[in-house]
Structure formats: structure tokens, C-alpha cells
Amino acid sequence: MKLATLKEGGRDGSLVVVSRDLTLCQPVPAVARTLQAALDDWDAAAPRLAETYAALNNGHARHARPFDPRHCHSPLPRAYQWADGSAYLNQVELVRKARGAEVPASFYTDPLMYQGGSDSFIGPRDAVVAQEAWGIDFEAEVAVVTGDVPLGATPEAAARAIRLVMLVNDVSLRNLIPAELAKGFGFFQSKPASAFSPVAVTPDELGEDWRHVKLHRPLVVTLNGRPFGRPDAGTDMSFDFGRLIAHAAKTRELEAGSIVGSGTVSNRPPGLERSSIENGGVGYCCLAELRMVETIEQGQPATPFMRHGDTVRIEMFDREGGSIFGAIESTVACASDHAEGND
Amino acid sequence: MKLATLKEGGRDGSLVVVSRDLTLCQPVPAVARTLQAALDDWDAAAPRLAETYAALNNGHARHARPFDPRHCHSPLPRAYQWADGSAYLNQVELVRKARGAEVPASFYTDPLMYQGGSDSFIGPRDAVVAQEAWGIDFEAEVAVVTGDVPLGATPEAAARAIRLVMLVNDVSLRNLIPAELAKGFGFFQSKPASAFSPVAVTPDELGEDWRHVKLHRPLVVTLNGRPFGRPDAGTDMSFDFGRLIAHAAKTRELEAGSIVGSGTVSNRPPGLERSSIENGGVGYCCLAELRMVETIEQGQPATPFMRHGDTVRIEMFDREGGSIFGAIESTVACASDHAEGND
Q1: Distance from the A251 Cα atom to the nearest Cα atom in chain B, whole angstroms
Q2: Contact pairs from chain A to chain B, CB under 8 Å
């Protein structure tokens, strides 16, 4: 089934069930007012949400209304846990290669993961408010939402705890990263609020494209309306979501509603010169990767980071061409523009 | 006023108002069932909670019942944000000195802060379940809970957003830290679930001891019943809570209920040889600091990390000797013992 959260009814918004084709939705206050409430009591809530989903798809839902992703918040407007992995090692290898450094052997066996902030996500169509000087970048990723995961869970047990799948734009402020990482405590200011896809879906909804605990579909990224990337999220993912969740749960239990991300999707191209979409490649899911390729090829990056007014769109389509999750559309704004827009 | 959360009524527990002397408490379901709910609508909730607090202290509360910290969860059993600073630079200087490294100049102007996991805290008397080989340590700190903090808030505005003050044991797994930090993404597995004091208090409750956005009282730490530390939390704190919150809010807004920590409390001793309590010093708020002093003095640490069965107690007393927040008492357990204990 497909679930979304409308921007109405308080800080956590209002849970709706969404039809498979994303045209209709229905609030379910008798089951759960918020997605977190449904996740807190998933075994009781899921069958009842599934009934509404079936009714929506059959045209029998009594309280159906049109679904408009512009009214959506992120499925969890605020969450208790946002742990983002870095499972596509091609990207890690490029970063190091651009720097002239080696990839440590442990990176191939022990997932990279950072602790993200989760108190205040932006919605899928909300502005990214940031200064251009900070080096504004997007990172297109796949993420899962878990149920309760016990401390020390195996990857297999962790995989069974996956409740929902969604997309994420893990907004990154590249120019703040070097100084922040040099301090040794990881990301903080360089990872502002992320935006998630309007719709989160249960893994069964993905059919054969959800296998080996990975999502096997191209992640489609456009920048200001032009194709920028379409790498396959199931290809070159070195650690599946079960392993990523188990990594996060090694020394702590994870509470229901924890979000675990894949890291920027990235495919290993046959050769660097063929990696961009213009050259017939699959392109990229963040500007930094293109800039690293440019650095390796030309000695320095040529593509700038995002400027105020730039828009990145992140979406994934099923085999029939239907949008699975709806699109994330993040436009960059400066604080003063944003304040004016809010007046 | 003083607030606590009892372990009853669901994942977020049940909010109670606690009398100043910590002997009585009263649920306030008509005001807010949970502390997060009160923080979400603080301006409406706070005056009503204050009425109950006054009634409790005057002996006029109709539904008062005995308060037992053993039945408490952390005030926020799960939170949306847990950002922990490192505001006592004496500790940072010792870490570097033990390594033979310099402290970067930026550390004196730009707070160190890491993004903590907040989905599943342990209670103030709950076991810390971890393997001894991980190098189990405590970190006794002060933390504040904020209201909504806008993106880019000044330290002054951030200070005004402080709603509550509490203590925290930021459990740390020292032997996992070097490999984790070497990966460059900061702490994750090395920072398992933290434990907070049974009671959170409003700043006005602290009187003159809350000034310059710092808490000026000794933080009292005992290890297996023996005095271990009593440094003053207001002394040698290089960044006040306003600056720490503003640092966290530089590129993102903080949602009501965000927790911001001080980092391990540490006072600069007149000389290393006089830093331990046995030698007339104020002692330490974590084992690592003592081990660093031992390393500087003797070439290697002599004090082991915590072993299964060890208990650390963290508490703070008002000028009359009353416990302000109740005590955190964390006993270390291995996973199998803990499972038996739960049977």
C-alpha cells in the first residue's frame, strides 16, 4: 500500500492512504491520525490501512478525495531516527580518487553511516533555504522506515523490520563539510533538513523490483528540467538495507519509525567519459559526483553547486511508467526570499 | 517547575508534575499526556503545569501520589533531536595532550558538536547493555530542552528558547570510537542510548544558579558508591547553552523538544596531580578523562572502563542539599544478563 502525510492537523500532519496511481487519497483517523502512530502499532494498523488501500484502488472508497503531492509533508514530518548509510561505494571511490587517496579496505565490509538530524524535515515540495556560499547540493537516495529493531539484530531480522520504502533528497552543504569533518565529530551543519518523497510504500508494492533487500529501479533526477541522472538503485549497492539497519542497531535498539537511508545512488560506469547522461551514461544523483569526475578528468570541477532558484526533481517510475512515490521537487531559496514567500 | 515521565501509558510514557522536594507527583492528562505534547504547545501548557506544581508544593494537590524515580523513564523517552556539544575545552585539551596533539584554534570559537541518536533513550535507572570489550564509559553532562528554534537563531534568541534543564549520562563506547572516527563520518555505534535524569526542571527553578545561560552547581558523580567527580558545571564552560543551540540551528530549524547537551563537564585543575578527588581535586565526569591524566602522568591508563555490574550515579544538589533532578543510576549489563533480568 501507499501512504502519505498531508500538511494539516498539527506538527505531524495527517496520515492518508493513497491510491496506487496517486490520484486519490483518504484520511484514516479511526485507524491512525499520523504515520508515526500507525508505525507505533503497525500490526494492528496495517491490515486496516490495507483495506482502505484496496477500496481506493477499486473505486469503492467512500471518503476518497483527490491526492495532490503539493499538499504533502514528508511522510514523517519529524522522526525519531534518521541514519544515512553510504552503500554505493562507487561514489566513495570517486571522492577518494579525486583527492588522490585510497579507499580503506574496511569500507568494503563495514558500512559507512552518519547520524542525521530528524526533528524537522522539509516537505517534498518545500524550499531548501540556504546560502549559496555553503555549496548547496542534493543527494538522491532510497530510504526505508523500520518497525522496532532489537539491539544486535542480524541483517536478516533487520530486513524483516522494514515497513516502508521512500525516496529522499539528503540536502548537503558541501562547502561546510571539510571544516566540519576536520573537527572529527562528523556532519552537523553541513547536513540540513532532508526532504522525502510525498508517498511511502510497503515493500510488497514494489513486486519483483524489491529483491535482495534492495530496490531495483532507476532513480530519475532532473536539474532545472534537464536530465541529470538515472542510475539503478539496485545496482552497485554494496550493502543492502538489512545490513545497513543491522549496522545502526549494533549497539542500540531502533524504535519504530526509524529511517535508514542508502546514501547517494551511484552506478559504476564502463568509463568515466561515459558516465554523464549527455555521453550516454546513467549520470549522477548529486552534483558532487559530477564535480569529482570533472576534477579527475580536467583537474578542477566545472559544474557549480545549486544557486537560488535552481530546482532538483527526484522520482522513480514503475515498469508501466507510473510514478511510485511521487516526486521530490526541491527549489533552493535564500532566507529573505523564503521569508517574503511566507508573508 | 519540575516534570518527569513515568513508564506507563505507551512509548512516550506519562507526564507528571513533580514537587520541588521530589516526594510527590501528579499526572496531568487534561493538560498533556506526554512531555512532548506539552513542549509542542508550551505556551498553553506551561501555566497549567505551573498551577499543579504550586498545588503539589503547597500540599493542595488533589491527585498527588508518591514520586519514585525508579518508575521514571527519561523525561523524553524518545526525542526528535539530540545534539551534544563539547563545551568544556579542558577535556578536549586533555584528549589532545594525551595524544601529543595541539588543539586547533577554531575549537575556541566554533563549538564542537555531534549529532546523537534520539529514538530510544534508556531510563535513568535502566541497565546500559553493552559488551565490556567495547570500552564502556559514562559522560556526566547537563542538557537543555528547547522550544522551536528558527533557522539561523542568534545565541540570545536561542537562550530564550530553553524550556527545561536536565542531566544526562551520554554513554560512550570508547573502544569503538577510534575506528569509527577514522571513517570520517563521526560517532554512530560508539554512542549508544543515553540516560537522562528522572526530572527535568524549568530554568527559573534554578534561581541564581542559572545565569549566563549556564548551570552553576557541582555535578556529583560516584562510581560504585565512591566519589569520582564534583566539577562545577558553570566553571570552564567555554560555550553557553545559547551558543550551543545557535550552533545547532545555523543551517536548520530545531523543533520543540530538541535536546542540546553540554558535553562532559570538566574543570581545569590547578595541576594534574591535584585533579582527582583523592588528591583534593574536583575529579572527573568520565573515565576517559582520568585515563588521559594517567596517560600523561604515567605513560598509560591505569583505570579500566566499566565492567558488567558497575554502577555510575550522577546527581546535582541545590544549595540546601536537595537533589534537583533526581539521580541517574546506570548499571552496566551484558545482553544475556539483561534478557534474564527481563524474564
Answers
A1: 6
A2: 144
Inform me whether the C-beta atom of residue A144 falls under 8 Å from chain B C-beta atoms.
no
Q: Which residues of B136-174 are buried (b: 16+ CB within 10 A; e: fewer)?
A: bbbbbbbbbbbbbbebebebeebbebbbbbbbbbbbbbb
CA dist A108 and A111 (Å) reads: 7
Provide the chain A residues 228-267 that lie in CB contact (below 8 A) with chain B.
247-248, 250-258
ipTM of the shown complex: 0.95
Instruction: Please give the helix or strand (H or E) that residue A288 lies within, else none.
Output: helix A287-298
**Cα distance from N-terminal residue to C-terminal residue, chain A:** 37
Give A122-141 pLDDT, tens digit per residue. 999 999 999 999 999 999 99
Give the separation between CA B87 and CA B92, rounded to whole angstroms: 9
Q: How confident is the model at residue A342 (pLDDT cuts 50, 70, 90)?
A: very low
To 10 degrees, the CA torsion angle through A191, A192, A198, A200?
40
Backbone angles phi, psi at B165, to 5 degrees: -125, 145
CB-based contact (8 Å) between B117 and chain A?
A: yes
CB contacts under 8 A, A 279-338 vs B, are 335
Cell of A300: 578542477
Phi, psi of B214 (to 5 degrees): -135, 160
**A181 neighbourhood in chain B, CB within 8 Å:** 184-185
Q: Name residue B182's amino acid.
A: A
- Interchain pair B251, A335: CB under 8 A: no
- Choose, out of B80, B136, B181, the residue to mutate when testing the contact with A (most A CBs < 10 Å): B80
The rounded percent of chain B whose pLDDT value lies above 90 is 83
Cβ neighbours of B181 in A, within 8 Å: 184-185
Pairing of strands A65-66, A24-27: antiparallel
Q: Which of A113, A129, A152 sits opposite B335 (nearest CB)?
A: A152
pLDDT by residue (tens digit) across B35-79? 999 999 999 999 999 999 999 999 999 999 999 999 999 999 999
Which residues in chain A have Cβ-Cβ distances shorter than 8 Å to B254?
119-120
Give the integer Cα–Cα distance in Å for B310 and B174.
16
Helices A287-298, A89-99: axis angle to 10 degrees equals: 40
d(C-alpha B97, C-alpha A1), whole Å: 56
CB A195 within 8 A of CB A123: yes
